[in-house]
Amino acid sequence: MPDFIDSPVLSPVSVPPALAAIEGVVPFEAKYHAYLSDESRLTGWADSLSFPTSTAHVAEIVKACCQAQIPLICQGSRTGITGAGVPMGGHVMVLEQLNLIRVLAYVEETETQQATLLLTVAPGLSLAALNAELESGFAHLIENDVVGDAAALRAVNETKWFWPPDPSEAQASIGGIVSNNAGGICGHRYGRAGQHVAGLEWVDADGQVWSIHRGEYVFHDHTCQTPMGDMLSFDPRALGLSANADLVDVLVGGEGMLGVITGITLALQPAPVCRWAIVAFFHQDTDAAAFADSLKTDILDARYSHPLVALEYLDSSMLAAMTLQRVHMTTLQSLPLFPAGSQAALYLELHHHDVDAVENWCETLLMRLMEAGIEEDAMWAAMDESEYARLRQLRLLAPEVSNALRLQRAMSSSSGDPAVSMSLKIATDLKIEGSFSETLQRYKSHLYHPSNGTERVAYTLFGHALDNHLHLNLLPDNSEAQQLAVKAILHELVQQAADVKLNAEKKSTALACLPQSLSVEHGIGKLKAAAILPHLPAAYHDAYRQLKAAFDPHGVFNPHNRLQAYDCFVVNPPLTHAGSHSDAERHATCLYE
Ligand SMILES: Cc1cc2nc3c(=O)[nH]c(=O)nc-3n(C[C@H](O)[C@H](O)[C@H](O)COP(=O)(O)OP(=O)(O)OC[C@H]3O[C@@H](n4cnc5c(N)ncnc54)[C@H](O)[C@@H]3O)c2cc1C
Predict the structure, then answer these.
(1) CA dihedral over 79, 84, 89, 92, signed as positive or negative
(2) Which CATH architecture group holds 274-396?
(3) Distance, CA 38 to ligand 1 centroid (Å)?
(4) CATH number of the domain at 1-270, out of 3.30.2170.10, 1.10.150.650, 3.40.640.10, 3.30.465.10?
(5) pLDDT digits (tens, 9 = 90+) for 325-381
(6) What separation in Å is there between the alpha carbon of 497 and the centre of ligand 1?
């Protein structure tokens, strides 16, 4: 969660007349400053705020905002890293009080699908709270006698269930995770959040509540009727979806631009019986990449049966940052010291319903690591649940350690005033086609000056080797030169990911896949818009324009997301209340109004 930054002097505002009579809507005051930013550290402004306590309450506020044309920005836990939940004026609706787990239903196994337990939750529920409930075997639901029917109760008693998406920020809300279509460490195996959503409830611009389930609204021949009666007419492949996409998949990833989600039906799976992990340290990052490539070849054909669910890469900068932060982070202290001379690490996670399968594969992997020259003391293995949870922290802490380092660097290069030193967090979320070794090489070619081999900007690099999907965290100091270098690196990498994708496949297929390559799991929000939007095909923008017209005809839901004009770097500084783009400029550059 964003730290509480010393509040600037905010000019007193009063609640707009249209919202004044609604219970719980308050004027924005300095004490709410944390609600002006997310983990990207982009900071905006707002006129009013609410913490609705029911769907009816949400509907009342949404309706009033729409009638008065007041921008409405909904927030989950503000852990997003693209500024998507940061307001640029208008009303902030914080959904953290809508956090109930509501009802369960059991769906029997069919020929094509394994048994599923459906669980409906409110959007403000955190991933941590959901996982605690699942770990406890639904203790809270059973205690309150709201488990659902007898079949659901039997399923709860007989099986342990889990919801596969696992973004490493457990405080993120389910509403935010679904609105970003977030992924996580095991995304290669389990996919992204949307794949595990069976239905959605949302409040539309008129304050009406809608609810759909998978299978009810599906694209056929490039058309799909919405529950409101509008006809969408585009090829969903333009959005990176399948030709027969479900409307649920279209709404997932909406970044708060298509309505306020008030209920999510999650499709749970039986939890794997066995979860083990291995960490291997390498003296050369090229050796780590080559080992990752050799494993990728093996498991390519067996994606859904192979126990290896995650293969995560941490480079030398990440390991060095962790060593530096060890003194401050007790969780890091629970891990052994890294072997001397380590330049890269691979974190391997294995899941299966058959313990023998995990055991056999664990042995095979350790053997292969030894054959690759990794010595015994450079391999850690976790072969029970508690050891697994401890070892997993190595990968889970990577973003947090990067954040801590970024803050330290910014503080040391500024006056020491935290408000001054809040440089933006820029983390890439790109998938670059090719082997992992090639991908790594491409990243490095953008990170160092070709003339003298020095770093252009300090960074940490980690991510999903099985998908060539890395998170590069750029850690500039506050100098203008460094901020410009960050911007240049981001644009170069996006350009490269787009070029490689277009060259790798036939143009038509590649165009369809571009949205999924340039912004895999973090969304586009405000910070990525200028870098990514120009690369997306016209068909993508046309599809989004239609969605906005159908789901947000008044243009009030998070209207400042995905605007190419918002290039929030030093050359075009973050918008402030006084220095915001003029309305005329905003309308000229807004793609979706
Ligand atoms: C340390 C750290 C690790 C992370 N690790 C991962 C990772 O491994 N994988 C990954 O994919 N992401 C990761 N993320 C980013 C991740 O996308 C966010 O953490 C999460 O998805 C955002 O959830 P939130 O509740 O904080 O949403 P917010 O930041 O509050 O909002 C995000 C967007 O969702 C919209 N939104 C929120 N709730 C609703 C709603 N009810 N209806 C409509 N729109 C809504 C907002 O308007 C905004 O556009 C990480 C972030 C951090 C800080």
Answers:
(1) negative
(2) 2-Layer Sandwich (3.30)
(3) 9
(4) 3.30.465.10
(5) 999 999 999 999 999 999 999 999 999 999 999 999 999 999 999 999 999 999 999
(6) 23
